[in-house]
Structures are given as structure tokens and as C-alpha cells.
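Entry 0007
Protein: Spore maturation protein CgeB
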Amino acid sequence: MCVFSPQIYNEIHHGFLEAGCDVKDLFIGEEFIKRPDLLEAALSSALDEFRPDFVYSYGWWKDIADIDAFLDIIKRRGIFHVWWSADDPTCFGLASLPPAKRSDLVFTPVEELIPEYAKYGVKAYLQPNACSPHHIKLPPKAEYLHDMALVANNYSMRYVDEETKRSIHYKFRVEGIYQTLKPLVDARKDVKVWGRWWTDFDRAYMLPTAFYGGVLPTEEVPYVYASAKIALGIQQVGVSQTYVSSRTYEALGCGAFHITQYSPGVENYFKKGVHLEWSRSPEETLELANFYLAHDSLREAIALNGQREVDEKHRLIHRAQSVLAVILQYIPK
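Output (C-alpha cells):
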């Protein structure tokens, strides 16, 4: 399994391990763009040592490694290559399509893009985001005791497109910040935010420093969800029935009561007022927060329902099992 930009990697390898696979991880960082010989040496060594049935790759490879050189090494050995386009749909043309066109099989979290891949002769299947086995219900910690918490990175660059000066890639995410987080901050609620770039001046929304908790180690995130009365969420995609932020699955998997920005994907997989709550406006966010902070038993019952739904349907082992079932149609058992 090859992961580009390992500082932000998903944990799908745990799903494959739980599904009974032998897995070898190779994390590919920025040093490989400066030293192509290191990429050749590291990847070749891993392939020769492990002799995999297939290579499964994903991650933000741009400015990390030469994707064609990477795929050339795998192709020369005749190894079946699977690419997960985890950055769909926002970076479909920029980061997903180049490796997808040279892969034997592609998975995407956005079902609506499968016909688009087919136009390029690419065999694509659905693989949504999910909850890792590390995100489970844990005891609360005093340092994370807040009414509300958000764990997310602030990708909302003020300008993405240099020509139009508009934030194209993360427009829906920015709307979610203004819809889900900003009204609570403006109302001076007890809300704490953890993640990267929240106090940077070049973002579409700059969080007041009093509400910022810094960047958390990954292993601390479940404790945040265990300690806050409400775990907030923002979604990156508003045009897909199958894309849901991994943070939503993780918050629910940790047993947190979750209020997130509305998206078609959230509505497709979860029931409002049963597994979680979603908001369509700043006003609704405030109403939901005030209501559920005043109704502990109802909040806790919904949180339990959400956790059970994730445990039964939306953990990484479920995704790995689905992926393996497809892969086995293309390679010998």
C-alpha cells in the first residue's frame, strides 16, 4: 500500500488488515520529488521484499512525487495497480485522473464520477470514506471538556484560482464554516476548534484565537469527541449522494452527538434526528445547539444510534471487504 503525503493519510490499511490481508505500507513524502532515485529505490525494495498481489495507492501526490515514474516502476513488474481517488470530486482533473488513467482499477468516493471515468476508459467503482478502528468511544479528558468541538483543517483558501480570484475547490466547505461554526463563535458559545490553518490570515474564515486549540495528535481526536457534548462537522462536497466527510464517520464512531452541515451524502447515509443532526443555515445551527445542550438524554440517545449505525455499516473493514470483492474479480485468487 503506497500513501502519498503521509502527514494527512487516511487509515484504510487498517481495514485491509482487519479483512485478513497482509499489508506493507510505504509512505511517500516530499523528499521523493527532490530525489527520484529515492523513489525508485524505496518502491523497488518494497515490491521485491513483499511481492504483493496488488498495489493500492492514494493521496496527494502533486509536489510529492512523479506519479508517472511511480507507476512505471509498478508496471515494469507487471503488478496490478489500484488507485483510490480520495480527492474526488474537487480534484478530479488535477490529481485523480492522471494516475487513474494508468491504473488497472480505480475507486472513488463519488459515485456520480464513475461515468466520467468511463469516458476515459477507466474502470471505476465506489469506495466511500469510513471510520477507522482507532475511532471508538473512550473516556472523556478534562482538557477537552467543552460544549462543542470541531476537529478539521481549514482548507478554505481565500483565492484558489489566480485568474478569477475565487475559491473554487472548497466553496461548499467555506459555506459550511460560515453556516456551522461561525454562528456559534459569534454567539460566544463554548466551542473549541482543533486543526491546521484556522488562524491564518489568508483563509476565507479566520478563527478568533480564543476558540483555537491547535493541532492535535491523531490519537487524541477520539478523546475530543468523548469529551465534548456536541461534535461539529463541515462537509467538503455538496453535489454527491455518496461523499461524506471522514470526520462525520469518526465522530459518530466515537459515540459523539454530531451536528454537521447538510449535504446529500449525509442525508443518503444517515437519518436526521435519529443518527445525527444537520443544519442548513446559521440560524438552524444555533437552534439545534441550544436545543440539544438543554436535552441531555435525547442527545445521548441519538449519539448511541449514530455509533451503532457506523459500527454496523461504515467502518474501514466494510470498505476493505467491498474493495477486495471487486479486486478479486480482476486478479487470480
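Curator remark: Residues 159-167 have pLDDT under 50 and may be disordered. Residues 296-313 form the longest helix (18 residues).
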